[in-house]
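User: I'll paste a sequence; please echo it back and then give the predicted structure.

Assistant: Echoing your sequence first, then the prediction.
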Amino acid sequence: MVVDVAGAIAGLVLLTFAADHLVLGASRLARRLRISPVVVGVVVIGLGTSAPEFLVSGLAAARGDTGLAVGNIVGSNILNLTLLLGLAAIIAPIPVASRVIRREVPLAFAAVALFGLLAVVAGLDVLTGVVLAVAGVAALWLLVRWARAGRAEAGLVDEVEEFVARPDEPGRRTWTEAVRAVLGLLGVLAGAQLLVDGASAVAESLGVSQLVIGFTLVALGTSLPELVTSVQAQRRGESDLVVGNLFGSNLFNSLIGGAVIGFADGATAYAGVVLVVTMILSAGLAWLLLMRGLRLTRLDGVVLTVGYAMVAPLLLSA
């Protein structure tokens, strides 16, 4: 079992490192190719930090480990809007623009609710995968449209540049960033495979359900990119980027990640009803706290963090 644990840890480390370079390389490459910075911010950062969840859940579903696949998505969604958002608020209060509360946050909540409903009632099969994929494309279109209408190009360029935090060197070529992005993607794939293999083997050795492993170890590991970007954005005072990153990650996890699971493995209805309800309630709680005064205080951060700690006993009834 020691080898399996080591493999899972190696997968986590590789996943985190590779995801960082995937987002960094793709961001710089997109700018060099003169792709709209709005698209870079929404697609590259939002989808890039969610890539580990897609890949880990897809690989697990393809292996028939449905509990691990869905548990990863559910666990990541809960963790993003409780522990990670709470820690960010504890570092510093998070003010947020009213337009984010009116548009992006409700859209993310709807995505989480749709994923949970389909997973529990209908099951994540090819048909529900198509529904989630279509909803994901529609949500992405809305996000890009809202970003174009609500923010000047120059403002978002600054945000993306600060997020990347490494200005382009004069002699760096476009192909260098393309290689970085490709190697980052390959690293994420390899890390996801190591993590799934190791976590599945550990679960079998200890007699622990795949749901518990997916909800805890795997969910935490695949959420590391969101943790890194949220802390970095909060340190730089980019509160909208913190909220957008975490709620956006939940949106993409639910719609695209759910679709990937459905296409990879025509699973029956998901049995973890308690955790699905908790996932939806945690998203609703974060939304309500943000609406109250358009900010998250340090006390709100403590509430969200404690809320995550209280979820653990629910695993016993899942």
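The two ends are 25 Å apart (CA to CA). The first helix runs from residue 2 to 32.
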